[in-house]
């Protein structure tokens, strides 16, 4: 996008955030607007589609720190400066209201917007490049390159086990994609774009005015460097059509809640065969009734009886891949964590975390018959043995 368009658009307003909003605030606001106005949820709603496009454009700039900084600096430079239509006239000094005199050798008006038009077509030149070009010492115009498609974002929800083990899943998207009729070239099948004769494919025209040199977008090809004489009937020469497509996505093992996965080349199609943008998939993980995780470690709490802790036992414990036997030593305390090496969540670097098993005593709510008599006999024997679970517990406060 050209700097001129940046000044004319208020991306912060599009997202409903202040100009000093944090990156997290910007992303949350954009995510909400994109979700509410997504084409899948608003079929045939042109207003929602425009809001979706505007929010996507704003997020693309503001969520990138480098683009946001350039955007903010550009807007500050021209804030209150009369806009792009302001003219700098012939010599006149201070009596001319502060206009810059002598910019042009023949006294012709100079439109500052021309600078931005020229810069925007070269991929976003900085202000130094702009004024360098004005005085004939700027860098040479670079050949026009096709505009890459925008990055897209979507969300998906996974079960805990799917996120931990990885899963292949279909993902349905509605977005601009390469035209299937012309394969993204923009030209009618059987024809092809030709190199613009006006700029020889550079997209830029150089001209001299007095002692100064200027560069501006080629009027014949509008800065694209090519001309389509016979536009595609389906996409009208843009090389794009909006369509719903289904792609197969491989979610890697160990993905965490809120993590973003980048799918290269699966975003919005570029204009006239330019490379597509990327697709970023934010993963939301549903909680599991048994498992939780702590980093790469898989955690669970298993109910046990008092006698299993007192006498020791071997427990059958579930893992991501079947069951495993966990030995409980004699005299294990309630709440102790038992570690099973290598049976946790797969790591990105290879291997897996550990399985952490917490034992928790389950107390019977009602004892009757032999169980009650046995428990009473045990309580008496325990007391007679001198065992006191609260010995030394409160010091001298008891």
TrEMBL record:
Keywords: Chaperone, Cytoplasm, DNA replication, Metal-binding, Repeat, Stress response, Zinc, Zinc-finger
Record domain J: where: 10-75
CXXCXGXG motif repeat boundaries on the chain: 179-186, 196-203, 218-225, 232-239
InterPro entries, alphabetized: DnaJ, DnaJ_C, DnaJ_domain, HSP40/DnaJ_pept-bd, HSP_DnaJ_Cys-rich_dom, HSP_DnaJ_Cys-rich_dom_sf, J_dom_sf
CC terms in the record's Gene Ontology section: cytoplasm
Keyword Cytoplasm found: yes
SUPFAM superfamilies membership: Chaperone J-domain (SSF46565), DnaJ/Hsp40 cysteine-rich domain (SSF57938), HSP40/DnaJ peptide-binding domain (SSF49493)
HAMAP family registered for this protein in UniProt: DnaJ (MF_01152)
Protein name per UniProt: Chaperone protein DnaJ
Organism for this UniProt entry: Mycolicibacterium brumae
């Amino acid at each position: 996008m050209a700097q001129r368009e940046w000044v004319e658009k208020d991306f912060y307003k599009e997202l409903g955030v202040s100009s000093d909003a944090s990156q997290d605030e910007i992303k949350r606001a954009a995510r909400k607007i994109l979700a509410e106005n997504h084409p899948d949820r608003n079929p045939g709603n042109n207003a929602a589609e425009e809001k979706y496009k505007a929010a996507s454009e704003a997020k693309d700039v503001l969520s990138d720190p480098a683009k946001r900084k350039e955007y903010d600096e550009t807007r500050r430079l021209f804030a209150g400066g009369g806009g792009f239509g302001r003219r700098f006239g012939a010599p006149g000094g201070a009596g001319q209201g502060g206009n810059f005199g002598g910019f042009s050798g023949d006294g012709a008006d100079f439109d500052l917007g021309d600078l931005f038009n020229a810069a925007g077509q070269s991929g976003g030149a900085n202000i130094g490049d702009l004024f360098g070009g004005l005085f004939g010492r700027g860098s040479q115009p670079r050949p026009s390159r096709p505009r890459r498609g925008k990055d897209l974002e979507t969300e998906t929800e996974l079960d805990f086990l799917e996120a931990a083990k990885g899963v292949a899943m279909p993902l349905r998207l509605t977005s601009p994609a390469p035209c299937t009729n012309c394969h993204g070239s923009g030209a009618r099948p059987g024809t092809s774009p030709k190199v613009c004769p006006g700029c020889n494919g550079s997209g830029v025209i150089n001209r001299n005015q007095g002692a100064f040199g200027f560069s501006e977008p080629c009027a014949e090809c509008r800065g694209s460097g090519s001309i389509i004489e016979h536009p595609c009937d389906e996409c009208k020469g843009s090389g794009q059509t909006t369509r719903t497509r289904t792609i197969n996505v491989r979610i890697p093992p160990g993905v965490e809640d809120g993590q973003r996965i980048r799918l290269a080349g699966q975003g919005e199609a570029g204009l006239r065969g330019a490379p597509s943008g990327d697709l970023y998939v934010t993963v939301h993980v549903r909680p599991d009734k048994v498992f939780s995780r702590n980093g790469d470690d898989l955690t669970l709490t298993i109910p046990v009886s008092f006698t299993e802790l007192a006498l020791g036992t071997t427990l059958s414990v579930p893992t991501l891949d079947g069951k495993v036997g966990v030995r409980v030593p004699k005299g294990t305390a309630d709440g102790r964590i038992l570690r099973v090496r290598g049976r946790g969540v797969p790591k990105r670097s290879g291997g897996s975390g550990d399985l952490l098993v917490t034992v928790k005593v389950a107390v019977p709510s009602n004892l009757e018959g032999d169980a009650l008599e046995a428990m009473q006999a045990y309580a008496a024997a325990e007391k007679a043995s001198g065992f006191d679970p609260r010995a030394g517990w409160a010091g001298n406060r008891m």
